[in-house]
Design brief:
8 helices; alpha/beta; Rossmann fold; 12 strands; about 35% helix; disordered N terminus
């Protein structure tokens, strides 16, 4: 167990998902269970609540955050962060989807993070704004819990619709000044680079320098191999210098070994940039 005092944080009571450890409050602070998913209910600030209210997403005053810490975690040392996003089909929450990545990422020493409106919206109310603001709340909460984490290298990961969201969030958080090392885009049939440039205006060089790991099933009929190759081609045409496409024998699915490969590759990019 590790304790940290966060006066404004509220633990979720009675929210237990399969394989997920709920967070509990103890005298003197919150207790975080290492290597498991801790679920926090985070009060939003005025600007966050205003955006959520305008978008008519969830309860504007709170966001749920999922957080998993690796064994041996030392908050005084920079630790890479993986933020995960769910697709829209099959439909489930970001925190449930985070379990796909958690064990593999924490085993490599990564912090795993996600955020979502509360309650998780029905599909028509599941918007880019709701997801973006929830991610912003999650990173703010992480920084309040572990000061300095706003400077830690960060990657985004998602499958299908979640891969598009991961690319969008990469661009948004580059514009916000976060150090984004890469995006794992599994089963991605559409490049978001134009939307990123138009809506967020991130530093172009940082956007070109980050890693784009594309995972594609050779039998995928939703995000066909050719569509994924087109995404790669467009990224390269826009100047991206680190684009990697890996395939596997299978349909439209989140191929778990590629999670490991992507994280290893992102770590290598950090080493090559002298940031290890």
């Amino acid at each position: 167990m590790m304790r940290n005092r966060l006066h404004s944080w509220v633990p979720i009571a009675g929210l237990i998902l399969a394989g997920i450890a709920p967070i509990g409050a103890e005298e003197g602070g919150l207790s975080l269970t290492i290597e498991q998913t801790n679920i926090l209910q985070i009060p939003t600030n005025f600007h966050e609540a205003s955006e959520l209210k305008l978008a008519e997403v969830g309860q504007p005053e709170v966001v749920l955050v999922g957080l998993a810490l690796p064994k041996g975690f030392d908050p005084s040392r920079p630790t890479p962060v993986l933020f995960t996003s769910v697709t829209g089909d099959p439909y489930q929450s970001n925190i449930k989807e985070m379990e796909v990545y958690r064990a593999r990422a924490v085993a490599r020493g990564w912090v795993v993070l996600t955020g979502q409106p509360h309650p998780w919206p029905d599909r028509p109310q599941d918007t880019v704004t709701g997801r973006r603001v929830s991610a912003k709340v999650a990173f703010r909460a992480l920084a309040e819990l572990f000061p300095g984490s706003e400077n830690w290298p960060t990657a985004f990961a998602g499958f299908s619709g979640g891969s598009k969201m991961s690319q969008l969030l990469s661009g948004y958080f580059i514009a916000e000044g976060r150090h984004v090392v890469g995006a794992l885009m599994s089963g991605c049939n559409e490049n978001q680079i134009v939307e990123i440039m138009d809506n967020y205006d991130p530093d172009r060089e940082k956007l070109k320098a980050m890693g784009y790991f594309l995972s594609s099933g050779r039998l995928d009929q939703v995000s066909s191999p050719q569509q994924v190759k087109d995404v790669r081609r467009t990224l390269r045409r826009k100047g991206a210098r680190n684009v990697r496409l890996e395939t596997f024998d299978g349909p439209h699915a989140n191929y778990l070994p590629h999670i490991d490969e992507a994280l290893i590759w992102f770590e290598a990019l950090l080493v090559n940039n002298g940031e290890s």
